[in-house]
Write a structure and sequence with these properties.
Mean pLDDT: 87
Low-confidence stretches: 1-23
Number of strands: 23
Number of domains: 4
Strand content: 35-45%
Structural class: alpha+beta
Order of helices and strands: HEEHEEEEEEHHHEEEEEEEEEEEEEEE
Strand order of the largest sheet: 4-13-16-15-14-17
Helix content: 10-25%
Length: about 375
């Protein structure tokens, strides 16, 4: 009696186990993969066909965000001087023409004095020159006197013009200087719109002309500087699309377009610098010299492809299940070995033409083939 109970128990376990197995089998005679319609629906399987999907050949790059050549300004002094006032601070947004510093110094005063003296001398020498010219025309004056007056006037006028250009570039009204009305200080103004990325000056500090006291970056001029390896540079062309991301966040990609391809190899990295214009930079939170990564799309073509979920892997081979026939409550699929290529956006390229027909494109994860 005890033996009979054990046999019944074992048979019950086998029966339950068989019912829990996937209703998928391989017909040893036909070689088909058999899937019941009940299993098809319960496992939410989907059938479809190979389709043309756009694939791109890409070149990976690293790089950084930099301002364009007209979006970066280094601020220094035209003359040695002392910082009297500072009207800005690091990180501040500043407009073109805004006063950043006020500067004074003996050199500035001396240059104003030299200009005022030169203006007075030019006025006198011009009068002498015009008088000598008239006398020479009437054959009263000598050629020597006329030549001397002319050369003296031209030499002093050259000095006057040079000083005038320098002082006007500093924003001074030279007509006041000609009357002896001197400025105690002059202003250093921003040459571009942007934000102050660097400031190194204090009130009372003596500054030489070669010292950089501030830097301004126009964030609207940001562009990409890409480092492309030498072996890939022949694939890069002006006008190609770039997809890049910031801070290692690959889920958010931004667009740019190649606008310059370098011609010099950097010896340390064996790479070539290329540049790209960023699409809608004002909507991207970027900072100067920020590290970026991405891909340059060098070619785009439409190829026959299927969803990655359609591929069944067995050992080192890849297979698709193509619907061969449908009889009553059963689907009969035939496995076809395929060669695959590139992957993008969850689609995989088929490198060979397949017979037209329906195939299983989703729900293949429980199917085992030999």
């Amino acid at each position: 009696m005890k033996t009979n109970l054990i046999i019944v128990f074992v048979l019950s376990v086998v029966f339950v186990s068989c019912n829990n197995k996937t209703e998928q089998s391989t017909d040893s005679v036909s070689g088909f993969i058999e899937i019941s319609k009940a299993q098809f629906e319960s496992e939410k399987m989907v059938m479809g066909e190979p389709m043309l999907f756009p694939f791109a050949d890409v070149v990976y790059f690293t790089g950084n965000i930099i301002p364009s050549v007209d979006g970066l300004a280094h601020i220094s002094l035209p003359l040695p001087g002392i910082i009297d006032k500072i009207h800005c601070k690091p990180g501040q947004i500043i407009s073109k023409g805004s006063v950043m510093f006020e500067v004074s110094g003996n050199g500035f005063v001396d240059q104003q004095k030299d200009f005022a003296e030169s203006a007075a001398i030019v006025s006198r020498l011009k009068s002498d020159y015009l008088r000598a010219k008239e006398l020479y025309k009437e054959k009263i004056g000598t050629l020597k006197d006329f030549t001397y007056a002319e050369s003296s006037y031209y030499a002093e006028n050259a000095k006057y013009t040079a000083l005038k250009i320098k002082l006007e570039s500093m924003g001074l009204d030279v007509s006041k200087l000609e009357k002896g009305e001197f400025y105690p200080s002059y202003a250093i103004k921003s040459p571009i719109n942007g934000f102050i990325s660097f400031l190194n000056a204090t009130i009372g500090q003596y500054i030489e002309p070669q010292q950089k006291i501030a830097e301004i970056v126009d964030e609207r001029s940001f562009q990409l500087r890409l480092s492309i390896f030498e072996k890939n540079i022949n694939k890069i062309r002006i006008g190609q699309t770039v997809a890049f991301y910031l801070n290692g966040n690959k889920s958010v990609k931004y667009k740019a377009v190649i606008n310059a391809v370098g011609k010099t190899i950097t010896l340390d990295s064996k790479s070539i610098e290329c540049f790209a214009v960023i699409d809608s930079p004002k909507y991207i939170n970027m900072v100067s010299n920020q590290f970026v990564e991405g891909d340059v799309y060098t070619a785009v073509d439409s190829v026959l492809s299927v969803p990655e979920t359609a591929i069944i892997y067995s050992e080192n081979d890849s297979y698709l299940l193509v619907l061969e026939k449908e009889i009553h409550s059963m689907y009969y699929f035939k496995k076809i070995k395929v060669n695959t290529g590139r992957k993008v956006n969850k689609y995989i390229e088929l490198t060979e033409q397949l017979p037209i027909g329906k195939l299983l494109v989703s729900g293949t994860y429980n199917i085992k083939i030999e």
